[in-house]
Design brief:
- The complex is a heterodimer of chains A (about 475) and B (about 325).
- Chain A has two domains: about 270 residues, Protocatechuate 4,5-dioxygenase, Chain B (3-Layer(aba) Sandwich); about 150 residues, RutC-like (60s Ribosomal Protein L30, Chain: A).
- A six-stranded mixed beta sheet of chain A has the order 7-2-8-1-10-9, sandwiched between helices. Chain A has a six-stranded mixed beta sheet with strand order 13-14-15-18-16-17, with helices on one face.
- By secondary structure, chain A is an alpha/beta fold.
- Helices cover about 30% and strands about 20% of the residues of chain A.
- Chain A is elongated.
- Chain B is α/β, with parallel strands linked by helices.
- Helix content of chain B is about 40%, strand content about 20%.
- Chain B contains twelve helices and ten strands.
- In chain B, strands 7-2-8-1-10-9 form a six-stranded mixed beta sheet, with helices on both faces. A two-stranded parallel sheet of chain B has the order 3-6.
- In chain B, strand 4 and strand 5 form a beta hairpin.
- The two termini of chain B are about 30 Å apart.
- The chains are: A alpha/beta (about 475), B alpha/beta (about 325).
- The interface between A and B is large, with 44 and 41 residues.
Chain lengths: ~475, ~325
Amino acid sequence: MSEGGVVASFVVPVHPHTVLAPDMNPGWRALRNAYDEAAQTIRDLEADLLIIYSTTWPSIIGHQIQADPNPEWVMVDHDFHDLGSIPYSFNIDAEFAHAWDDANRNRGLQSRCVNYKGFPIDVGSVVALTLLNPDNSIPAVIVSSNMYANRSETTVLAKSCLDVIKSQGRRAVAITAMSLSNRMFTDFIEPADDKIHSLKDDEWNRKILEFLEEGRLEDVGQLSRTIHQQIRVQKVVAFKPMWWLSAMNGNRNDLTGKILAYEAIHGAGGAVVHVDPTSTGVGDKEYDEDDVEYFHGERGVLDTGTETDENIEQAASEIADGGAGTSERSTPEANGPALWDPTEAEGSVNTTAAPKPVGAYPHARRVGDMLYLSGVGPRQPGTNSIPGGPIHDENGEPLDYDIRAQTHAVVENVRRIVEEAGARFDQVVDVTTFLVDMKRDFAGYNEVWAETLGLVGPTRTTLAIDALPTPIAVEMKVIVHLGE
Amino acid sequence: MTPRPPKRTKGADDELNLAALHWAMGKGRIVAGCIAPHPPHLVYAENPPQNEPVAEGGWEQLRWGYERLRASLADKDYDAIVLLSPHWQTYVGTHFLGLPHFEGLSVDPIFPNLFRYHYDMNVDVDLAKAIHDEAEAAGLPVKMMENPDFRVDYGTITTGHLFNPDWDKPLVVISSNRSTAYYSVEVMQEIMMELGKVTRRAIEASGKKVVVLASNSLSHRHFTTESEMPEDMSKEHITSHAMHLWDMRMIDYMRSGQAQRILDEMPEFTEQAIAESDGGGLSWLLSTLDVPDYPAILHGYGTIIGTGNAVVEWPCYAHEEEQA
């Protein structure tokens, strides 16, 4: 099976005018033509899956994924019912939908499939699928936009989707059914009078399109909250689709964008945009916000904590099994990432006397007469507690802590791993130390160093860094020479 | 022969007196106005034959509240139900169902596991058109919905069923214009107060007896998870104490005849309780009832997936009896 991936992404408008009345306004016709061009591009790419994230399908209980293999009905828009009806009969990839649902839960998301006759598929999805896949030759999947989801949840939703795309080797097209500015005229207008509602909306729309044309999708994603405040009517679903679409493309800024059309639909900004994953070689990403792999957010409000933990534990296990096949991750602590069993590649040195890793790696690895330790912190084996206390609480609020106690604990963990390898503490030859607060902690750390490793005499480099994966202040990277 | 009014005599039967009064005034009238929330859970829990999923009960406090509301109006004669549903969301004007009959399958897009209801309902198109025309004359953007393929929103169906499970009265269904989203609660309320006034005028001009329903919850913050068995009442409670306080404050105003204070505090209530009054139904209802200064009857209060819901009746008939 070839490796799957996203072969193209599209932004498409949601209102029914492009299907029902393209010739009533030149702009609507231009959008329809762009839709048709997008459909041809999808065919030329030989895509085998269309994935629609629709802003006109709000959900409350996590994200919902359409899993009826052949949903059929007649869609009539709540506002523009006088334009006519859109009968639909879609080809949904139910197997993919269920796999995505599983993958969502594996990454800590609330998620469920829906498969009910007569389920009202939303206008955005109906318009997009009708025009992008007119002969139903490509199976599709539709996901809702959760009204309470924020960036992390929406980002993880994309990553779980990518998990399935890769595992199934699919050539997927990611589609966001959305308006740019979404302020429509609040009164009825003649089609000929349609235009973008305001100059401000138009300017913002053009700025978004400029970014997209330059392939700066992640930049648009990170501007989502600002865009929502500036040009979005505060409906239940915020301007989330760019979070999803950017994550579907690896949170990149070096994509290849092409604007196929930009026009007004009853005042709202409608655009058809093609984002090609081919790198332009420019536009490196600059993260203002953290990337996330698992969702550990506000969940379990019905006090089903056990169930949630089991889900996450199961998720960890499945993800790990999909990798090395032998690793196992335990339930994450409230204040830090999940813990893993150390990996067992050739030459690995592991011990239960040292704290569990926070990823798939060994405590140390022997190569010839050298022993390289993974970064060692002060966490205690078994309890995972931090001598001297954590540097912040589970809400990120800073706490007072004892750098001396933390440094002593690091040195002790180093000693345990070295001895597990059959080596001696005085064979440590090089140490790189990472401190999260150099100004506050260097003196205390330096005192403990002098009392311990300083007596052994390894070379040393001390660096200031922003953060460590767990709420600790100090970590050491250690190299040991095993020969005499 | 010119018809004669029923004879009005002091101390005689009140219904006769009221009939005489309204005949003399040549007016239609509002029999009662109600808050009649629409969470599909209530229909699901009741297991009516029209709904496909099957439940083991649940949310009894609210379902019994609806029973009390129905009993309260059982002996009152009326011709039509006028209903504003926050789940027919229109961003361009206010719309009215404009065909005499709708039937089909209503599937809740958010809780499809609970609500897949086969509906069959009649519309009082004449009254709908009368309200539409009155609103248009007042300068409000309005439109009649005359597409036969239109699927009636699940809020309308749910409230329609819970208020009148026999479906033996025609409805006037009014969409929820989302002016709160476009502007603010204040602007929404201004529009809805005007829509309420024209609704009242059109009803009075129609000569019909009508019940008006605002189909909305009070506080409206949901849980984002659902228990394995949705009707597991051990999991049901209000999402926060603040939501509870707001709900009780509003209900106190209702029970003590202080509708004006509800309107005065509508912006704070709507924003802080994330209340479903954002759809305009409550403001419209109170305006249609001419901002009642007489007590409402609380038939029931309960939470549904964390949201606060009250079944409330303003007994206009009783108020008129007192006035008469």
